[in-house]
Request: fold
Amino acid sequence: MKKIIFLFFLFFTCLLFSEDILFEVNDIPNDDGSALQLRWNASNISAEKIVIERKDNGGKPTFVLETDKSTGEFVDGTEISTGIEYSYKLTAYNENNEILATANSVTFSKAQWFNFKKLSLLIMSLIMIISIVYYIYSARSGKELYIRKIAGLESMDESVGRATEMGRPILFIPGTLDLDDMQTIAGLTLLGRLAQKAAEYEADIIVPVCRSMVLSTAKEVVKEAYLKAGRPDAYKPDSVFYLTDDQFGFVAGVDGIIIREKPAANFFLGAFYAESLILAETGFSSGAIQTAGTAMPSQLPFFVVACDYTLIGEELFAASAYLSKEPHQLGSLKGQDMGKAVFVIALVIGIILEISGIHFLKDFLTIH
Amino acid sequence: MEHFFSVLGIWLGALFTFAIFSFLYKDNPFYKVAEQIFVGLSAGYWFVYTIFFILIPNLFDPISQDIGANWIKLFPAALGIMMLMRLIPKTEWVSRFPIALIIGTTSGIFFLRYLKSDVINQLTATMINPFAGSDPVTIIGQLMLVIGTITGVIYFYFSKKHEGAFGVTAKIGIYFLMISFGAAFGYTAMARISLLIGRLQFLLGDWLGIISP
Amino acid sequence: MKRKIPLVITFIVGIVVIISEFIPHKPFGRISGELENWYLIIAGFAIILGQMNLFKVNLFKIRYKQKNWQFYIITLISFIIMVSCGLFWGTENNPGLFGNAESITSVVGSKPFDYLFDNIYQHLQATMFSLLAFFIASAAYRAFIARTLESNLLLIAAILVMLGNTSLGSSLTCWLPENLKFLHLPNISSFIMKFPTTAGQRAIMIGAGLGIIGSSLRIILGIERSYLGGE
Amino acid sequence: MTEKITRKQIDRRWIFLFMFIGVALPLIFTIGFPIETSENSEIVYDLIDNTPSGSKVILSFDYDPASMPELHPMAEAVMRHCFRKKIKVIVTALWPMGVQMAEDTFSQLKADFPDVSYGRDYVNMGFKAGGIVTLQAMGKNFREVFPKDMNGTPIDELPIMDGINNFNNINFILAFSAGDPGIKQWVQIAHDTYGITVSGGVTGVSAPAVIPYVNEQKQLTGLLAGLKGAAEYERLTKEPGSATKGMDAQSIAHMIIILFIAIGNINYWRNKAKEKRGA
Reply:
């Protein structure tokens, strides 16, 4: 008897589901309410074509999509806003274009105030911010901070001295990207320190740039450096000049300068692409001491091979703090290192967890 | 007539190709001319490009078509004009405002972008089980991947002396950096030689017609 | 005032950009995208500064007959030609001030701006780029010397990868038996690329990422302010 | 990193000269070093070879003249293979110069395939800006994104476009990509969102970053990487072209570099030995 009831039940559920198609529309969480998620499954009725339409606040139906997939998902992001009722209608057709079934779903879209998918990013940001700010404050209170030697920076005095001795200029290039890249800003910071030193030792500095905004900023930086060195009269406004925005056009021009002016020292500090090696090799052939620094992983090999000193990745950003020796600058470096330590520990724990088959940490940190 | 100009074009191309190549021998008037033409043409090109492909579609079109919906674009326009006030020495300092805005934006965006893509994503990509793999070569490789990444990051540690066990770890890190530099150099060599091949195919094919292009 | 206000602007903008990353609600979700768009426009205006500077510096050199002054005349002429071609007759899909240059196009085959771009500019670019093939060889010759353990690693990795990526390299070791196939040069090369190289690149990326994060914070907090022209 | 080297060096212009000749000669006189095909290239070949004739595919030209030396031979070999298999080719471009690149490739092949007619077997839909957003829109409604081809012919008048409303009737998408927007975006949208087979070819420099997508989930179905990938493809289709010749030049150039590294080392050690004796 039980068996018969069970079979009966099974038969009816099959009947029920075979007629039915699954169609649901939901608000997408963690967004600004400008999209809805559609899901459908009409595989039971062997639909050949699915058409979905939408009505906004009961208005005229508009076409959303047509597909031959009987199961699927779709994100509708066309003119969706909050506070409007969206009613979707799905129509399934067979191969003769006859309607097999229809389904409806009504929903509202919502906007969220916090994106929970980015929780791990927020936590990591806070770790970095807190550790850096903490060490800046503790450095201000007079705590002595150690910082290891950065080999690439030893060249600065040597280069300036050599330029003075030989009576030749120093060439500085703050990369080939604009102010919307941090490497350029780091390069300009170092330009300030170098220009001050050059002003003190009465060496000339030439700075060709390939972006107009970098031109403005670099001019300010160099002018200020001469002022700080107490020699504002020695500042030549035309020592910072623009060539062209074009990557290789710029390189052609700089190559010409290197060959004709024969600078005693070249500094390439900033963001570089393929031009890195052309500059460094031409600089080598002119006999200059060369210092390079970039965070572009693809260009570092060329600088390492062709230059005398190279600031690798993070060293470029640490350089200005290192040279300034100001406590709060050094404090921020220390904070950065603490953040680094936390991340390395997290990495080791993550690997151990992965080995033991627990994927929690990796999944939590993965940001989509 | 069109044919004449297309032949002229190829000859011009070949001429400038040789002018640049001549720099490899030594600096000479041909290179100087090519260099100056390159600088001038490209500066002009980017000027025209900026007008047609940046300012018109991003600023002038939206404002002239529907200023009501795009009034916000007036802000960057005003900031752009502030930038131009550098041309007058007395108002030079005004350009610091747009620069400060851009540097603030860059700092904020880069803070997050690099934390996401270059720090967290690289960390999670390294969180693997190195012993999962069918053959010993893969397992050795994955172990190298994990050890190399960790020791490499430790090399960049600034606030601790590189000595003792810490120094050894940092040293291993440098070794991995060196291997990666060497390999990347060798790998890029291939792509760079392709560029020369492309140039020579132009000279030998399109220009001289010795090889079929 | 001239220095304080910019610092305040940087601070506020930086903080708002960071916070808005986590708030999908309008208008926060779109702030950083909009600001990046602003950057394009401001930089678009600023390009005039560069061009003026180029003009000024070159005119100065010509006027005072500095060394090689004749060549700087060429710079100015080619700059003027390119700009006027672009502004007067437009580019491929954009009409210029004098219309669409149908009559010139029918003779030359393309608009003057595009003709110069295709036949001079592009060749100059491609040739300059291809110089890398030569420099890669000269740099390798000079620097890949087996001196220390570090330089040995650099050298060996480079040679193995270079060999593994050519047909000659693969024919050198194709006789290896199946169980020693991992020593086959292309396989060694892809092993090096896949594991130790990725490790090194990742370490650089993580380090540089942290450096950028630290610098960004220093700038937002106003500790690093030399971009405004020193302290 | 490079300490001042005191040893006598060869004038580097000799290296330049050797490189120039070493690359030029193999282009004129084919040597024909054997080319070993890699698994990733074979997957691409099999994908096209097993596509039934009459199918429609998208070839996306997402590069500009700077990457021509590497990607052009690849595009030519792939398109040739498609035409041989009587597969209909729809060209799109996410880079403005891509349109021209595709036209160039097509015109190279015209002589060999006189039967291939524009509009029926091949069409160039032109460039669309917007990268990932455009791809999303294409998956939703292809005809809205590309109402006309590059010559301005309405899409309804092109027989090849019959029944193409989105990615559904496309067998696979193959992108020739030199950066962003490019193959990554195709994978993210066409494969990850719409489940379409995506394959492609990339420059040698960007290959390491793209190869991880060739995985168990088949985000990418095979990959042609750099000039070598193109040469391998030519080998698989048994129609050697410019990439095969280029590979000879490539091999010689690599040999020249390695040779000079060897000379550099020998010089260094000889000088060192001399110094020792001298001291």
